[in-house]
Amino acid sequence: MPHNDEVLVVHLGGLGDVCLAESLFLSLREHFGDCLVALGNRRFLDLFSEYFTRTHGVESRHWLYLFSEKLTGPRWKRIVFIGKDRQGSIRKRWRAHSAEEPLFIDMYPDGAFGPAEPPDARGSVRETMHIEAYQLHQLPAYGIKPARVNIPAKKVNRVILYPEEGFSKEKWPVEDFIALFRLLRGRGANTLLLRPPELSLPVEGALSFEDLSEVKRFFGEGGLFVSNDSGMAHLAAACGLSTITIFTTFNPAIWHPMGRNISLKAGMDEVEVASLAEMILQ
After folding, report:
1. How far apart are CA 279 and CA 282, in angstroms?
2. How far apart are CA 15 and CA 43, in angstroms?
3. Is there a domain that residue 149 lies in?
4. Fewest Cβ atoms closer than 10 Å to its Cβ: which of 50, 56, 151, 248?
5. Of all helices (H) and strands (E), which one includes residue 44?
């Protein structure tokens, strides 16, 4: 089936990566029109379905032709790849499937997964470009005008705490989130505990959702979202919630959620339970 009038947008990143690319999706939609087809993790891309005519999951065998030099597939008007292609092999391979030269947007700068830069001799932190700005900065070279999504801020009418267990990176401890929850409740704050489906908590009434669309509806009611550096923090910000995000490894200047965000760096900022509670209440 030919796709000569459609633009295939390939984004293989996680939840946070997809959320941070919303302004990029908007820019592509305004430039190419109503012809964008998204390919990647469909659970994440469907959260931003308004930018695409349809979305597809990359795990389907149908898309093997994009990743094999031996298979043939349909030809698209243009393929846009948002990711990492240091050797240029993907762009070279996809020329066979793209009527126009494939458009490559580097997802994040090299070194973005390292720790925050220490202060220099003058006491100032070196300037670092945020992911959204880094991606949009690449568009003019392709003749595309960057556009930023305007996300109306919702009312801060409740506090939502989101604890996680650390696997691939360190996390602010789950037990500290529970202590913070009880402290805020004791101070009369409307506080909710949202847990990942795989995490068991010794707290009655903790909320959990299996479907991200349900989480998005839940966020639609507003609030202040407090969490570790996580994909869920970026989704909360994309939904208009104010966020307080605790970073333990990566540089918050590069990875902080959009919108009204306070980023705290463990080991540099005050992230004790009592001090964090005071920040939230104020």
Report:
1. 5
2. 9
3. no
4. 50
5. helix 42-45
The CB density around residue 212, as the number of other CB atoms within 10 Å, is 16
Measuring CA to CA, which residue among 67, 50, 51 is closest to residue 59? 67
Amino acid of residue 94? W
Per-residue model confidence (pLDDT) at position 3: 65
The CA–CA distances, whole Å, from 71 to 99, 238, 264, 275 equal 17, 38, 48, 58
Distance of CA 41 to the CA centre of its chain: 13
Report how far residue 115's alpha carbon sits from residue 173's, in angstroms, rounded to the nearest whole number: 19
Beta carbons of 83 and 10 less than 8 angstroms apart:
yes
Bridge partners (DSSP) listed for residue 228: 246
Residue-wise pLDDT for 206-249, tens only, equals 999 999 999 999 999 999 999 999 999 999 999 999 999 999 98
207 Cβ neighbours under 8 A, 6+ residues apart: 192, 193, 194, 195, 218
Query: Which amino acid is it at 93?
Result: R
Mean pLDDT of 263-267: 93
CATH at 120: 3.40.50
Q: Please check whether residue 267 is in contact with residue 251, taking contact to mean a CB–CB distance below 8 angstroms.
A: no
Alpha-helix runs per DSSP H in 95-230: 131-136, 174-186, 212-219
Give the end of a domain, one of 77, 110, 142. 142
Total domains in the fold of the chain: 2
Question: What number is the average pLDDT over the span 72-95?
Answer: 92
Structural domain range at position 215: 159-281
User: Residue 87: its pLDDT value, please?
Assistant: 86
DSSP 8-state code for residue 221: T
Number of residues written out for the chain:
282
Alpha helices in 99-173, H assignment, sequence order: 131-136
Within this chain, do residues 12 and 106 fall inside the same structural domain, yes or no? yes
